[in-house]
Fold these 2 entries.
Entry 1:
Amino acid sequence: MLRQASRLLSRSVTAASSKSVTARAFSTELPSTVDSTFVESWKKVAPNMDPPQTPSSFMKPRPSTASSIPTKLTVNFVLPYASELSGKEVDMVIIPATTGQMGVLPGHVPTIAELKPGIMSVHEGTDIKKYFVSSGFAFLHANSVADIIAVEAVPLENIDASQVQKGLADFTQKLASASTDLEKAEAQIGVEVHSAMNAALSG
Amino acid sequence: MASSAAVPFWRAAGMTYITYSNICANLVRNCLKEPFKEEALSREKVHFSISKWADGKPEKPILRSDTPGV
């Protein structure tokens, strides 16, 4: 009974895939994911079994893109050990992307940005909250939701300036005396992170 | 279709992104004021035991622990 099922399944699957490979809709625009021809073929072959579920049926539908640009940006800022901001509505966020400081306003183009060590500031009215982010990613979605994930993010007041200076001097010296590629890379990372912290504290 | 994009220096030196990210986080944690520094460094503690397998049997496990006395 089930030998026939795989033939029927592959027949309906190839029919669907040959036309969908050319024109792929965005996942926010797809209609209901139930394939009726597949379900009918399944019921003919295995009337007592439920048709198999597909991963899409377990997913919540993505929030649709609003037709007009929202007035506020919704920020989710998470760290591995804590959720710093969750669904907070703000006016603007400036993130330290590897391509430079990027200002994110509501209605920003959907972007995935890798973050470098630097300051992230969250602007809400006249309130500005700054964090020093060690590295991470920022996902900006079409519906003005920004998911920012970082491994370590601290408010600037918690950074000790003297240790930053000491670290910078240490790593600059290590960079000069490094021999292998890996040592050079580690020293370079040290110099970059400490310079960024230095700039953050003084700027 | 070989990619000719410039790779970051750490990738060129053979490091993965996770290693890079963890090194950055560690450096930031080391520059914090007390008591934040202690809390932060406690996040880096790991505790695990590894054993290699040979002939279908586990050999002596290696215990790596940052929590003393365990």
Note: The two ends of chain B are 52 Å apart (CA to CA).
Entry 2:
Amino acid sequence: MALSRLSSRSNIISRPLSAAFRRSISTDTTPITIETSLPFTAHLCDPPSRSVESSTQELLSFFRTMALMRRMEIAADSLYKAKLIRGFCHLYDGQEAVAIGMEAAITKKDAIITAYRDHCIFLGRGGSLYEVFAELMGRQDGCSRGKGGSMHFYKKDSSFYGGHGIVGAQVPLGCGIAFAQKYSKEEAVTFAMYGDGAANQGQLFEALNISALWDLPSILVCENNHYGMGTAEWRAAKSPSYYKRGDYVPGLKVDGMDAFAVKQACKFAKEHALKNGPIILEMDTYRYHGHSMSDPGSTYRTRDEISGVRQERDPIERIKKLVLSHDLATEKELKDMEKEIRKEVDDAIAKAKDCPMPEPSELFTNVYVKGFGTESFGADRKEVKAALP
Amino acid sequence: MASLLGRFCRKLVVPGSAHGSRMISTTACDSEAVKSLNLYSAINQALHIALETDPRSYVFGEDVGFGGVFRCTTGLAERFGKNRVFNTPLCEQGIVGFGIGLAAMGNRAVVEIQFADYIYPAFDQIVNEAAKFRYRSGNQFNCGGLTIRAPYGAVGHGGHYHSQSPEAFFCHVPGIKVVIPRSPREAKGLLLSSIRDPNPVVFFEPKWLYRQAVEEVPEHDYMIPLSQAEVIREGNDITLVGWGAQLTVMEQACLDAEKEGISCELIDLKTLLPWDKETVEASVKKTGRLLISHEAPVTGGFGAEISATILERCFLKLEAPVSRVCGLDTPFPLVFEPFYMPTKNKASSSSSLSSPLKKKHYLIMGLHVWCRYWMQSSPLLITSHSICFFR
């Protein structure tokens, strides 16, 4: 029985199913090597190897966290339709592998900055479900104290520099963070994430030029889900090979639906960036939902395409198959895990619903260090009066 | 006639040529065909007419091909072809720069910026290139054919980046025009005027009204003159100035104020740069009080410019300080939007605070006399402090 677990250094994915001895899932750190599904395509650098070092614990945690992320996004969908979340809500389901793979390769000292599709990245950085739902519903216990909303999640202690509304604007910021990291000799890197739509913004090339000039440890990650809102990438970009867009900056194209490929690429990119300066990673991924909750997602692509990707390339299914083939859990255990996750998400939502909205005086705080000294007079029925510094 | 003018008269037809009298709004002659349209349909009609009448006009921007995120450009690509109505990649600076170049070659470029909040990457192009092109080339070149359309303003759930009102930034740039319609009928006429105006125009459309405002819009080609404000409601006690969606709010405030016996004069500025100083001045000279309202933050908003100009021109006629009921000095909030917005209650409260109370009327008359006497000797003695005292 012990043999079936320990001797797993081979590259063969499928193994003979053995007896049903189960040890506790969370503590086993047996190393496993997994092959990525597709080779990496490189531009101006040598691609990393396809064999990824991992462990049983990591494999199971991948499954659990990705299932949690998926559940969270679906729950956010229903909350939005119930009008508990207002404003904008951009969902990440389908792209979880990018968030998870990246986290597995880096530490909390490495910074991540992204655009508005940030719920799962925040979770990956150590955010709690309660903070996510509270922020989505605009409550005061949210990660940005209810003042940011869906598009503006931040987590300072994990170097998550957040969600940004204006696409492309976060990339020069990311390069600035990388400069600060290099200056303080922190041996840390910054991942500046953006989408295929934003890849056409001029600011990116400015940021790339500066990063390359000064050898900054910045890694530009293009999450290519092939649609910029409703515009397909071939209609917006002359060159849809986003990893080559850096020209003099090396690039790597990665299968973004394979969490291990993402992990390997990010590890490689981190080593590269600390030595040689910027690198571009293009994650070939897909989102099942539309651009945001007001977009059905089916006017510019066929339902067959969406279901095709879901069947063939779904990141969670891939991890599930790996877990099952490596014999780390049974189908039933995974289902129980999913039920547990569902309950966790529901509990977090219930707790977040009970949280109050921020105080009206919070409208004026944090404009500058201490508000702006404005006054609001209570002519409206809501009687807002704020005495400010 | 006076009773008709007293109401907020929606049925307006303003002929293409300036008809001289600015203070009085004419009633409609309903002989031409009209159709009940909302704002985005009116703008769509205007774009259809503009592209039809000028074969060298183009409409482009992000996602305009399928009709745009607010459906303002539906049917254009099908009718006029992909060579004249086309999508651009996600690059506002590139889009506007491209439009300036196209306009410099004598074409009419109607550029769409998807939300006014995204116009800032293009700000350099608008301010440094578009506004100064004619000036710095000594009239050899110009980009007058450029019109930039952007939806602006709050919608109730827009948050930081889908609700901003950036009109004040552009009003500070000589060389461009800034136009904001208040309703579908105005929008169609003003947009056609803006497109055909030989100067670059930034045209802000109140997105809140895209579906909400419905009005009878004439189907033919008509233009409403730029830089002419319109008095949409006559009154005697206080002048209210606004533009865009805020006028709907102010109209409600006027109706509320009327119940308290305050007669309000409501002016739609329409064009913010260059703005119609004469109309507002004449109105304030009549009423003696001014209240300006806009969604943008109060500090540095366009209300400040109106206030300063009116103060210069009508100082002796003012009976109270100019009041600005505007958005607060914070970034546009997400959950706090109801507190931030200049609502009708804030406007009503402000107008009743500055409106005259009958028993103090003779004091105010006395102030006028006192001021005129002192003006001959030393105008500097008249300080705002002393005027407040008499109020």
Note: The two ends of chain A are 70 Å apart (CA to CA).
